[in-house]
Each structure stands twice: as structure tokens, then as C-alpha cells.
Amino acid sequence: MNILILSYSYVARDIRIIKHEYFFKKAGHAVTVCGYDEPRRKRFGFPEKISYLLNIFRKPERSVEILYGRLAPPDALYDVIVCNDWNTLPLGYRLAQRNKAKLIYDSHEMATRQFGIKLLKWFFMIKPLACIIEKKYIHSAYLVSAVSPGIVNALKEKYSIKNAILLRNIPIQVSKGENGIYDDIEHEKVRIYYHGGVTRLRGLEILAKATVKAKNIELYLRLVGDFAWLKKRFENQPNIFFLEPEPPTTIGQDFHRFDIGATIFPPNSFNHIHVMPNKFFEYVLNGLPVLVSEENVDLYELVREYSLGFSVKKYNVANLLKLFDSIDINKVRKARTKLRCSNFHVSAEEEWERWISKIFA
Predict the structure, then answer these.
(1) 12 and 137 assigned to the same domain
(2) In the 8-state DSSP scheme, what is residue 92?
């Protein structure tokens, strides 16, 4: 079969796209990926802004093109069109109609509840467009997928669909370091580790504030994106360390240095409540107990059911300090033992094979 994957992302760095392409090819299909070869940085002039706003309700597809640009897939016959995120749905739908192909919508998260009113620009300027586009095209999709059970259920309920399934962000290959699952700890303070993207809405400053006040905790941050504001505020703290970024293939090689992987987010959006990021699986599969909040309901359910790490009831400085005061290296050892004995099993290969089998069912 001939597969076309559409994405407005920088596809060479988009892990989700890489996994789609990898597993389709592994299943014997021809794959074309249409996206951007580098990050898109565009400044919008006043006429473009006005045109964007005027077309949201009149010609929403035009607003999508103004905001995200135009993709130009090769002129070929395709059997399956995979839309990576809501903004590719108009183009994907047109190509599917032309090719009489199956339209697949990988929504990742809940597009219409991405950030909430705390991000005013998104709430008033992008959310209306996302709502219109998703509502218009989602029922044309043969299959819909999302990253967590809560988001899958929300899509089913919102649009009265039955064809939405789970496709979790499990790494293709876990980058293993020296540790595997280990018990030897030579340091005294508990080391908490976080890697990944950062925005002000992700609440990392809450974790940093609690670390500053804790006596037995060190925080190690390996960040990408705009984190200058966070570094300026905390880089001089003796127990907070900013590490250089690492590619996904080597990022697990120094996990043996750390004790707990942080996958904790404030409940300031629907997608944070139902978050299920790559890093959660990377930590657990590398034998690193995780830190979550009960407010991250889908993550907490896994941690609680399979004894995968530590949790706080609510993500705030007071609750974190209470937890930090209660844990030491011995408790970390016990948490590792529980993780090692857990029957928690995930596999990217099994996850994508199941997804692809649904596409061709």
C-alpha cells in the first residue's frame, strides 16, 4: 500500500512522524512524508492577520493555510492518508477524496482543549479554528487516534464516534545506559531528573521552587526550547543543574546518575490532566521510578496500578516538600525494586502494529 503522512511539523525531529514512517515501512508499505524540512519561522504582516481572522468562520481552510503554510505532497496515488494533527485535515480530506483513500486522523492530544483560557492568544485566535476544522472533518476519518485513554474517551464523547483508539508515545528503542535496572547508589541526595520541552505553562518552576527549599533533593534539567527565563531564575541554586541536550538515541545513557524521573504537570489544561508523554515511558523502561501528580489522572492510574514511582495529591510546592521530606536513598532503592518486579509491559512495536492493523481491517 502507498501511505502519505501529512504534518506541519519539522518532520526530521518529530518523533511521532518518525515512528509512523518506521512502522509502516516495517510492515511492507511505501511511505511518503510531507512536512517541513526545518522549523517554520514566519512573521505575519497586518494584512495576513486580518485575512486570517476574517476567514476563520467564512473559509476556515484558508485560515489554516495562512497560519501553517501550504504542504505540497508529490502527485501520486495513495491508499492511506495520515493526518498528523488537526491542521492537516482539510488537505488530507481533499487528497483522500481524490484518491478514494482511507483518511486517518492522529490527533495526538485534544486539539480543541489544548491550552485553555490561560493562553489568551490561543484561546481567542486558534481554538475557534481548531474547533471548526476538527468538527467538519473528523467524521470523514476511517480511524482516529490519541495518546492517552482520557483523550480518546473525550473525542468519542464530543463527536459521538466509535473509531477512536489509543496510540501511546512509547519510544521505538529505549536508549539504555549503564544502569539497566540497578541498585547501587553512591550519592547521598535524591536526584530528580527531567528532560524535554519547556514552556511557562508546564510548571517546571514549581518543581524548582520546591527543590530550592528541600534539604535532600537535587534537580537535573535537560531542556529544549525557550528556557532562558527558568535558567536565569534558578541556575545559581546549588541543588539545581542545567544539562546539555541529548538526541533521543543517547538520552538514556546517563540515567544511572539519577533516581527519579519527573513527569509532573499542573492541571492548567485538559491535555495536562490527561498527559502521557514519551519521557514517562523512557524513564520507566530504563528502570527509573517516576514522579507524577494525582491531577495527571492517566499517568497516576498507571503509577498506582503498577507501582511505578511516587506521587503527590496536587502539584504545588507544599505537597512536593512533604514528599521530599519523606523520601531518601533507601526509599528510592525500594521504589526501584517495585518497578523491577512490576508486570508493566509496553512496546512501541506492539502499539503501532495494533494501530496499523486497525487501519487495514
Answers:
(1) yes
(2) H
